[in-house]
Every structure is written in C-alpha cells, then in structure tokens.
Design brief:
19% helix; alpha+beta; 34% strand
Length: 277
C-alpha cells in the first residue's frame, strides 16, 4: 500500500510536469496524455484513467483516476487544475448553482465508488456562514466550493431551495462530529458542517462539508471549501473525510483527502477507498 501511495503521488507530479494541466491542446488520448499513461503504468505500477476535461477562462481542469494495473483496484480519484484558477478567480458560471465547471469522473469511478462528478463554484466575494457561527463573516473571504457529487449533474439541477423545518438526517447517516444540515440551497442541497467550524472565530481556510438531499435521506456530496489564500500559499494539506455509519448502498468510499501542490497546479485527491454499505 505504501508503494502505491508513493506511486500515486509521483504520478500526479508527472501529470503536471508533462503539461496536461497547462497546455490547452493536450488530450488524454494523445501526446502528453499517452506519455503519462505509459510512464505511470510501466514504471510506477499505476495506470491513469481520464475523466472529463474543460477550459475555464483559459485554465484547464481535468478529472482522473489512478488504478492498479493488474487488478484494477482504484488507488486515487481526483481533479487537477492550474494555479491560475486561484490567482484570477473567475466570476460565477452558468452551471448548477453558478458552477464554473462540471466534470464527470471516469466510468469505473462512477460505477464502483461514491464519486460521480465534480463541480467548482467560484466565490470571489465569499458567502454567508451557517446560522449560529461565532464569526458570521467566516465564509466572506474569497474561496472555492469544490463539490464532489455522488449523483449525476441532471439530478443536481433539480434540487430545490427549501427552508426549514426539514426532516432531520438519521443518526446513522450523519457523520460523527457533524451538525444537522439546515436549509436546502438551490441546485446543491443541504450542507452539514463539522461542529468545530461554527465555533472557529478565524476566517475560512479549508474545511470539508457533507451534503444531503432536501429530505435528508442520503448524503450526496463531499465539499472541500478552500480559501483563495490557502491555494495561493502553495502548501499541501489534508482534510478529514466524514464517515457515516451507513450509506444505503454498497460501494467504495474514500477515507483520505489531500490537496497536493505541484509548483503551479493543484490536485485534489481522494484515496484509501474502503467497502461500505
């Protein structure tokens, strides 16, 4: 396992060195993409499977998975984007909840894991903090909401805005240390914060939220919310991944999250998948 973790980290660095995160003309199936795939598979014991790719204000964003070359075990799933995205934050886009980009993960990820697609919301002016926050301006700093959804984009478009009272999330679905979510945000859902975030007097740096459908019946996203300042700092960091007792379906679920800086690009990486039900 340690060998594969090292290989995955090295493969991510190679991905950026070969220019996929910077060259708009690069494609997963030719040129640099093929070179990276061969390097990862033959020399480092991992294979890359590409998801979707898009250009946002000239900045490429790509999703991917790293798998074991012999048995297909999923080692890591994530997204990579240039540091330029953080340096020049885009205005809100035309995706769900004004997402600037929405990208699917590879089919093998969608079929076997919690992760289906990701959306990025850019908040140059921040947004409100949850009710009851000690610092009501905590989330007013410029930041990105990275929504890693377990459902297709089509379902997200249909999520309504709904105010409390709403059904409580059952105790076995609510991760330990997380608070009952409040209102449902249009084209997102209900956001559950770790309890410590509401008592933190400092401005937002980075936090992992858990998202729920309006009726509280299922957790449907993981959301690293990361400030612009943290991304500009270029320092790797990790966040705890919320873990419910039950999920309502059998699948692979990540237990580790790392944000890895490559010099002028970031990779947001979920790894260490376990079987859950």
């Amino acid at each position: 396992m340690k060998r594969h973790c090292f290989a995955a980290s090295l493969a991510l660095a190679v991905l950026v060195v070969l220019g996929l995160a910077f060259a708009p003309e690069a494609r997963p199936n030719d040129g640099d993409g093929n070179i990276f795939s061969a390097y990862a598979r033959d020399d480092e014991g991992v294979r890359v499977i590409w998801g979707e790719r898009a250009i946002v204000d000239g900045v490429p964003v790509v999703t991917w998975a790293l798998v074991h070359p012999q048995d297909g075990t999923i080692l890591a799933v994530g997204a990579t984007f240039s540091q330029n995205l953080a340096e020049e934050m885009p205005e809100p886009g035309d995706g769900p909840a004004e997402a600037i980009v929405s990208l699917e993960f590879p089919a093998v990820v969608q079929e076997s894991t919690f992760l289906y697609h990701m959306e990025i919301q850019s908040n140059p002016h921040g947004h409100e903090a949850p009710p009851g926050s000690v610092n009501p301006d905590r989330n007013r700093v410029p930041h990105f909401d990275f929504h890693f959804y377990s459902v297709p984009e089509e379902l997200v478009w249909g999520i309504p805005a709904t105010n409390p009272p709403l059904p409580a999330v059952p105790a076995d679905l609510l991760p330990a240390g997380y608070l009952q979510p409040g209102r449902s945000v249009l084209q997102m859902g209900r956001h559950s914060n770790p309890a410590w975030a509401l008592t933190d007097p400092d401005p937002l740096t980075a936090v992992m939220l858990a998202g729920f459908l309006p009726d509280g019946s299922a957790m449907h996203f993981l959301e690293p919310m990361i400030s612009q300042d943290v991304l500009l700092s270029g320092q790797n960091f990790a966040l705890d991944v919320p873990m419910p007792q039950t999920f309502g379906r059998e699948m692979l679920y990540p237990t580790q999250f790392r944000a890895v800086f490559h010099g002028n690009a970031w990779s947001l990486v979920f790894s260490d998948f376990v079987n859950v039900q």
